[in-house]
Amino acid sequence: MKPNTTPPLAEKDQLHPRNPHRAPYDFPLLSKVSPELAAFVRPNPHGSLSIDFANPAAVKALNRALLKHFYNVEHWDIPKGYLCPPIPGRADYVHYLADLLAESNGGVLPPGEEITVLDVGVGANCIYPIIGRREYGWHFVGSDIDGVAVRAAQQIEAANPALAGAIEARLQPARTRIFDGLIQAGEVFDMTMCNPPFHASAAAAAAGSQRKAAGLGTGRGPRPVLNFGGQNNELWCEGGEASFIRRMVQESGRRPRTAYWFTSLVSKKETLPGVYRALQTAGATEVRTIEMAQGQKKSRLVAWTFLSPAQREAWRKTRWADSH
User: pTM of this prediction?
Assistant: First the structure.
C-alpha cells in the first residue's frame, strides 16, 4: 500500500480558513468578555497589547476568555500543573477533521448530532470536545489514563449547559493500551482523534521545556516555568510519538470496523515513514496525510481507514443518511 497523501496547495503558514483564531487576539474585547484577563494585558515592545505568554496564569486567563467568547463555555478550569493548551492550533485539527468527514460523504458534512468522535487523551482541559461540540455539534467520548484528568473533564462538561450530554470522559484503565479495554462491545465511532505524547522520556520532556522556557525568557534557574504546563503522561511516553502512534495503528487494526477514520496528529515529519509502514502491515485500505501550520510551527494529521468501498457506502447509508 502506498500512502495516499493530500497534495499541498502551497506551503501552509496559516490556520484553517474556518478557524476563528486566524486574526490577532483582540485583547480589549476578550478582557471585556472575561474581566480577569485584563490584569495580564500590557503593551508589548512593539506597542501592541499582549500578555506575558511565559506566565502560566496569563495563559490560563487567555484560554478562559477564548473559550467563553468563541465556544460559549462559561466555566473552565484545570488542576494545577495540567496541560493548558494553545487553543488556535487545537481548533485546526477539529476543522480539518470536519473537512475529511465531508469529503468522505460526497462533500456534505453529516449532521452534527449523528457524529460520534473518540478523543484519545482528552486531558483535564477537554479542549477538543469543547471545540468539536461548539463548531459542529459532535458527540464525544474522551479517554485518559489519568483519573484526575477524567474528573476534571467531567466537571467541565457538568458545569456548562452548552456541553450537557455531549461529552463522556472515560478512564482507560490500562496505561499501555489505547483502544483495548476502553471501547465497549458494539461501540463505533465516525472518527477518532489523538494528540499523542511528543517526547520519548522524562529527560527529553524536561530538556524540551527548558528550551521553550529559554525562548520565552523564563529559563533562569534549575526549574523553568512551564507556561502551558503538562503532566508526565501528557508530555512523554516510552518511545515518544512514534511508538505511541504505532501502538495505536496496531490496536486499530484489531478492530477495523470500530471507526470510519482513525486519526492522529504527527508532530515530527521523521515519524511518518514508520507510521506508514505500520499502516501497511495493519492492512489500512486508505491513508491520508493532511498538512497543518500555525506560523513557523508545522504539523500534520494522519488519517487511516480499514473499510472497503462497500463498507464505507454502508456506513454512510446507515449513519449519515440524513445528510443526503
Answer: 0.87
